[in-house]
Fold this protein.
Amino acid sequence: MPDYAGRARRFDLRRIRGVVFDCDGVLFDSRDVNRHYYNHILLTLGLAPMSPEDEEYAFMHTVDAAMARIIPPELRARAAEVQGHMTYVDFIERMTPEPGMFELLESLAALGVRMAVNTNRKNSMELLLERFNLTGYFDPVMTAAKVARPKPDPEGLRRIVEAWGFPEAEMSYLGDSAVDQETTVRAGVPFWAYRNKGLEAQLHVDSFHELRQWFERGFCEIID
């Protein structure tokens, strides 16, 4: 018998037909690139770099929401000009794929599990997927540019549910923030928390290596 105080139960992964991924903090470690992007704008305007609180906000929200938070109203026109001379190509090489990501995607594809992306990125997601040769894995790819309201509004996630055409209970959303958690609650999709024990989730996933192994054996064990 295992040595733990709680009770273990098996979570059957064979019924999961689709996994939706958040991008930042899940597929990629993008905190460095986010920080560099926004601080470049702030420093160009003669402003101080982001505070830790602003960095956390910018990491979870759309670029428009982040800019509205960190740029004073009287400087927003100038900030838009600075943005207009920037391209994401200048920053994309700072993106770091999450360890085990490629192996997980290959394994899920081989198992016939569908994959999609639902992100608050606006116009850079397709470019990012192309740069890392990931385009063929995800369909649909929902971004803040493709919906009327970004996360935590459930529109993007609900559109994935409609595109896939199978019950929400047979899919999951893998995210790392309270914004992701709220999105799933509003969409009625099971939530899996990635490297964030503070979130309420059906599953807590510590690594892509772990998740791949769970899928390959068809179950994972949860200790209650």
